Amino acid sequence: MSQQPQYPECEACRVSIHEAHTKIESRLTAVEITLWGQTGNNGLRADIRELKSKIDVLLRFFWIATAMPPLIVAVVVVLKFLGQL
């Protein structure tokens, strides 16, 4: 493989391409750190996990809260049927 002669305009293009790649790489690194954090315990991923656990607790509360009235009605009906009420 023969080497091509070095032209100043080609060198300028190489430098500008290298600078563009460096900027893109730094932007990607910033996005990656924002999304995943340094160790995975911080960043948006950890925030989403924390939010998911809080929503799970809230859903359990509503599940129990909405299940109580039918259970109370069922107990009252059974007690009334048995003559205990």
Tell me what the structure shows.
- This protein has 85 residues and is mostly helical.
- It is built from two helices and no strands.
- It has helices at 8-36, 44-82.
- The longest helix has 39 residues, at 44-82.
- The N and C termini lie far apart (100 Å).
- The mean pLDDT is 85.
List keywords for this structure.
85 residues; mainly alpha; single chain; 80% helix
Low-confidence stretches: none
> Structural class per helix/strand content?
mainly alpha
Our estimate of the beta-strand percent is under 5%
| Largest sheet geometry | none
Report the radius of gyration as a whole number of Å.
Answer: 32 Å
Count the E strands.
0
Name the overall outline: rod-shaped
In sequence order, what are the helices and strands, one letter per element? Answer: HH
The proportion of residues forming helix, as a percent range, comes to: over 70%
* Average residue-wise pLDDT: 85
Distance between the termini: 100 Å
Number of helices: 2
Outline the secondary-structure elements:
Layout: H1 8-36, H2 44-82
